[in-house]
């Protein structure tokens, strides 16, 4: 039902939330989440554009959650890469039972994933990393 991209995004974000070491490199996340590194780099770009992670290049750089893991829902991650919605179809004069059933199913999925956070996916007893304070970016002179 979900694309490989969505699964990779979810696995990587759960791994990032579970990693208590602070910033992690794309290579480290890929190895731990068992996701191809090059593919993960593209997935993480979507996470950054969606405001879910911060990334910093160079020495001391890496990837960190932009918010605490408890504040990032699974739906946030899914919607950052491939929004969970029905395809827009031509409107029919009266909605038939199939359309209503499909709409209900999508609504239930969205509700379920919205109610579960990255922190909820961490095994009990394992610490969850809090999002670090956003570092100011040094201005070039």
Automatic annotation (TrEMBL):
One annotated GO molecular function: DNA-binding transcription factor activity
Superkingdom classification of source: Bacteria
UniProt-listed InterPro entries: Tscrpt_reg_Rrf2, WH-like_DNA-bd_sf, WH_DNA-bd_sf
Cellular component terms per the entry's GO annotation: cytosol
NCBIfam families with a match to the protein in the record: rrf2_super
Annotated protein name in UniProt: Rrf2 family transcriptional regulator
Lineage, highest ranks first: Bacteria, Pseudomonadati, Planctomycetota, Planctomycetia, Pirellulales
């Amino acid at each position: 039902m979900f694309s490989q991209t969505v699964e990779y995004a979810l696995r990587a974000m759960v791994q990032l939330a579970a990693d208590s070491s602070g910033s992690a490199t794309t290579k480290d996340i890929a190895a731990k989440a068992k996701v191809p590194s090059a593919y993960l780099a593209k997935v993480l770009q979507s996470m950054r554009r969606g405001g879910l992670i911060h990334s910093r290049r160079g020495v001391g750089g890496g990837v960190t959650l932009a918010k605490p893991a408890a504040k990032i829902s699974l739906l946030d991650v899914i919607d950052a890469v491939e929004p969970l919605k029905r395809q827009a179809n031509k409107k029919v004069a009266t909605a038939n039972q199939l359309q209503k059933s499909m709409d209900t199913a999508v609504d239930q999925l969205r509700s379920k994933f919205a109610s579960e956070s990255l922190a909820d996916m961490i095994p009990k007893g394992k610490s969850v990393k809090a999002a670090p304070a956003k570092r100011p970016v040094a201005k070039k002179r």
